[in-house]
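User: Predict the structure for this protein chain, please.
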Amino acid sequence: MFGYLLVGLGKYEKSETYFRNILRSKPNNEQVACLFYNMGLSYCLKRDYQRSFDSYERAYNMHLNTRPIRLVSAAKTLNGMGVVYSEQENYIKAIEYFELALKIYKKYLQHRHADIGGTLTNLGNVYLEQGKYDRAAEYFKKAQKLTNHTSQSSKYGIDIKQFGYNLFW
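Assistant: Here is the predicted structure, written as C-alpha cells:
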C-alpha cells in the first residue's frame, strides 16, 4: 500500500492525507481496518500517542467484527498498541498487549513466523527498559533463535552482542 510506503519514508502528513482520501472512497471493512492500523503506526512515529492508540483500537475492533474474524491482524494491532504503551513508558500495559498478541500469534501462525519474533523482541526491549536484564535476554534469545529460521531475520533479528553493549554502556 502506498500509504504504508509513505510512513516508511517518514512522510507522515502525506500518508495521513492518503489514508483519509481512501476512507472517503468507502472501502470495505477489511481495508478500513488496515487503514486505521497504518494511521496508528504513522501517529505513533510522530509521537501522537493518543491518536495512535485510538486508530489502533478502531482497527482492532474492526478486525474482530469482520467476517471471517481476522485474528492475526488483530494480534498485529495489539502489538502496535503495546508499542504505544512502551513508548509512553507504561511497561505493564505494554507487556499485557504484547503477551496477548503473542498468544494469538502462537495459536494461528507457524511457530517460526517473523511476527512472533518481532513481538518477542518488543517484550525483550520492555524488560530491558525496566532493568530486568535476565528476562530481557531470555526474550532476545528466543527472538534470535526464531528469526534465524525465517526469511525476515534481519527485520526482527536481535544481535546478542548489541544487547550486551546496551546493557553495559
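Confidence is low (pLDDT under 50) at residues 152-157.
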